[in-house]
């Protein structure tokens, strides 16, 4: 299995093909996150840190909405891609390579109004110790009363069902199709899941289909486990929203 840094380094150049239209999807993601933050008093031009920003799926649209955004990620290639996407859109996003477990050391001069970590990033932290380090570092990056918002997969349900993966999703038209799918291998106790993400691209003219595979491990982090870790990390208030209530594609947790 690849480390998170290697996994996302390998995906950085083709991450957009996980979506039919990455920028349109990013604007939707940013809009949902902005609405959830606004409901808790965090409005532009608030200072916002996306501590697992990837190629900028949330960070860039939030910058376009007027938030003063810093984005960090453990993947240098993802940060470079985010920087390229931000420059192409003339968005003033500050971007840095940083491990979420020590992100406050990189952004220590900033006391953010909000920190976000979306798209199932926290379950890359496989041990209680690493999760604790990350949440404490996030807490130190926030001003007093600041908001932490994260989204993860619904591992409470997934751990019970233990699905073998996700179906292939295809986009585009014949000759220029692309898509992705995942194969999952669960640990015997259901505490961890190894995933292999397949990225498919139809090459025309060319030999046909190009396929790349990227593998990593997630912790099947249940809501009660994350709530307990947030409380221990200094967050007194923890609220969970279902996808239906949040208007998002994953459960969302909001902590202060």
From TrEMBL:
Keyword Transport: no
GO function terms (MF aspect): methyltransferase activity
One Gene Ontology term from the biological process aspect of the record: methylation
Pfam families per record: Methyltransf_25 (PF13649)
Methyltransferase in keyword set: yes
Keywords assigned: Methyltransferase, S-adenosyl-L-methionine, Transferase
Alphabetical list of InterPro entries matching this protein: Methyltransf_25, SAM-dependent_MTases_sf
Coiled-coil blocks: none
Domain Methyltransferase: start-end pairs: 49-146
PANTHER family cross-referenced by the UniProt entry: METHYLTRANSFERASE (PTHR43464), UBIQUINONE BIOSYNTHESIS O-METHYLTRANSFERASE, MITOCHONDRIAL (PTHR43464:SF19)
Protein name (record): SAM-dependent methyltransferase
UniProt organism field: Cellulomonas cellasea
């Amino acid at each position: 299995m690849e480390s998170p840094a290697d996994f996302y380094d390998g995906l950085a150049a083709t991450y957009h093909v996980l979506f039919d239209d990455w920028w349109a999807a990013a604007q939707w993601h940013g809009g949902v996150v902005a609405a959830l933050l606004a409901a808790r008093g965090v409005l532009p031009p608030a200072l916002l840190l996306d501590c697992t920003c990837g190629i900028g799926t949330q960070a860039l649209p939030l910058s376009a909405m007027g938030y003063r955004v810093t984005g960090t990620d453990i993947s240098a290639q993802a940060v470079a891609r985010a920087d390229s996407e931000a420059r192409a859109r003339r968005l003033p996003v500050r971007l840095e390579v940083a491990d979420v477990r020590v992100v406050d050391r990189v952004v220590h001069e900033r006391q953010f109004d909000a920190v976000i970590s979306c798209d199932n990033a926290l379950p890359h932290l496989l041990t209680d110790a690493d999760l604790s380090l990350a949440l404490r570092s996030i807490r130190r990056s926030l001003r007093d009363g600041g908001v932490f918002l994260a989204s993860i997969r619904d591992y409470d349900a997934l751990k019970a069902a233990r699905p073998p993966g996700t179906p292939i999703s295809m986009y585009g038209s014949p000759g220029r199709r692309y898509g992705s799918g995942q194969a999952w291998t669960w640990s015997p106790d259901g505490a961890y899941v190894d995933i292999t993400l397949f990225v498919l691209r139809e090459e025309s003219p060319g030999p046909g289909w190009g396929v790349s595979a990227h593998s990593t491990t997630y912790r099947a982090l249940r809501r009660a486990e994350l709530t307990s870790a947030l409380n221990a990390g200094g967050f007194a208030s923890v609220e969970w929203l279902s996808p239906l209530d949040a208007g998002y594609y994953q459960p969302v947790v909001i902590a202060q």
